[in-house]
Please model this.
Amino acid sequence: MREERGGRRGGRDHGRGEREFERGRGRDRRGGGRRGDRDRDHELEVKEREGEGVTSPTKEGERVHFKIFKNVEREKLEQQRQMDQDFPALVKNETSPTKEGPENPDLANIILKQRDDSKRSESPAVSKVVNRRDSVSDKAVPKLRQAIKFVDENHVFCDGINDFMTDNTDFIVIGVFGLQNAGKSTIINALAKLCPEEEDIFRVQGFEHQMLAEHCTNGIDIYVNARRFILLDCQPLLSASVMDRTIQLEKKYTSEFNSTENTMEVHSLQQIGFLFSVCHTVLLVQDWFTDVNLIRMVMAAEMLKPVTPTVNAEDKTVTEYFPHFVIVQNKAEFTDTEPEYVEEIEGLYARVLKKSRLQWRKEDERPLVVMIPDQEGERADELKNRMKPNENFEEAVKTMRKTIFSLKRSPLTQAKLTEKGWVSLANRTWDNIKNSPFYMEYSRLLP
Model:
């Protein structure tokens, strides 16, 4: 019995030992398999770093090929992508620029971009109104249809014209002043119109205004046309209608100077000085031979104007700016256009303006005098019995435009101005004139 029990125990121990042995072998196999996988992964990583083509087995037995680029090649690709984003026009197209024909590898590929409909050029026969665009910002600029206020009747500067200005530097500024009913607005309209058939831009004194002895322009009006001509129309000087308007305003506001007459005269001097400071060309319009008081006022305005430094075009030195000064003899009769009479007028202005620093001379040292005959219009019945001048109104206007637009422009400041910069210059100039003590001192010398 004891032997049988011992045999049974020995068999159990033997079976238990075999099972433990099998378990140990299984663990060794699993451990070895894991170590083998780790070794293979390490070899793959080493080969990938070296840039060699490697293969890795998959569950299905298929093999996938991995190609790894070096760091230098990756940097080149990143730089090329950055260049393509910064300069899309330099991207090479895979297709040839020609629709038909063989590909030519020697020719550089070109990308053709289609322009937007708003930027495409149209036929001249198409009648379409297009607003002017700013050359710098490519922004549409609205077009003026009528003149607007630049300085109102209360002598306050208005900057509403700034919305119609651009960054263009090729422009010309023309101002006009004179006595009441001399034809200032008619002359400035002739310069502003691009064709004679256009409507009047500045208000013209009609028959009703003439019967009531009223003026049309209050303060200074401004207009800019499509050719970038900036035109300024000033209220009449030494006008009884303006003085009456000044009295009405003085009931609301205090008088700036001693009396109404002195206030009207100083305001006229300030407006002339303003035109002398911001215009390339200034026109003095008269409807008869001359007025000594008006000439004296022009000389006083030149003396009182603020100092505006500019650069001389010849020797590049800094000098004070003075515009071209053109004298327009409006409503000229037949006798006024005779050569002897014209020479007499030119001789008078040559002696009066001899010491003036305004640019009043032509190339032949003669004054800039333009003769404009009277328009028939409402006075056709009155003028039909008179001798007509040798040159009619339309031909005289063409001569005047040619004379004024051919004058050499001097720079208004030391730096190059744009249209918007000119508006800022005009604003500062008007503030300097309003705050200048010279006009107050001059008013104290008036009777």
In short: The chain is about 40% helix and 15% strand. Residues 53 and 67 are 6 Å apart (CA to CA). Residues 1-53+63-92 form one domain.
